[in-house]
Every structure is written in C-alpha cells, then in structure tokens.
Specification:
two-stranded parallel sheet, mainly alpha
Length: 122
C-alpha cells in the first residue's frame, strides 16, 4: 500500500478501530449483553475528527471517499462519538514511541503504576 498522507493513515487506523468495535458489539449481542450507544472513541487526530463531521471533500481527500463515508456514516447515525484526546494523555503511545525518563514515569502513571528505575553500573 502506498500512503499519500498522514490523514490517510490515521483514517485507515480509525476505520479499522470502528470495525473492531462493531465486531465486539456483535459478540456481546450474541452473548445477550447489549452495549449502549453511541460508543465513545478517543482520537488525537483533529484531521480525522474534522473530516468525520465535515461533508465537504477536498482534492487531497477524494481518493479516500469510501473510508471517510464509512466513518462519517457511523458518526451521523450516532453509533459512535469521536472525542479529541490530547496526544500527551494517550497511554498507548508508551508502547509505540521511545520514552525518556520523564515520559516513562508519566506513561506508568497513566497505567496507575509506579516507576522503578534500575541503575546500571558498567
């Protein structure tokens, strides 16, 4: 796959996240444990949130119309709600990005854990 923009990658990931949520909803429905809607999804990409609510497509997004339509449809039908979450508050970043001591401590705090540093002696 050739990626043309970060917006495209973020939309791909968000679309897959929505599909996973609906798979889980289906599983819970079969287990007779319905889930209330709208499902709240947090996202740190203001571009994804804006395009999910904005029906106007620009020349830079027209090649991804199907994915945008899918996300927008779920938002319009109030099946999902997208809430902006600042990147600094996203706990999964600690699993995907390099962290210095300060960010490592903050990441552990988001997980309700205490940091334990090991001093290396050479």
């Amino acid at each position: 796959m050739v990626v043309l923009s970060t917006l495209e990658v973020e939309t791909d990931a968000f679309t897959e996240g929505i599909r996973e949520v609906f798979w889980i909803i289906g599983l819970f429905k079969k287990l007779e444990r319905p889930i209330s809607r709208p499902i709240v999804l947090y996202n740190d990409s203001q571009n994804v949130i804006t395009t999910a609510h904005n029906p106007i497509f620009h020349s830079r997004t027209k090649h991804m119309l199907l994915k945008y339509y899918y996300v927008r449809k779920q938002v319009k039908q109030r099946l999902i709600e997208i809430i902006y979450l600042d990147t600094k508050r996203i706990s999964t970043d600690g699993l995907t990005k390099p962290l210095n001591n300060h960010l490592y401590s903050k990441f552990l705090g988001l997980l309700s854990l205490k940091p334990k540093f090991i001093e290396l002696r050479i």
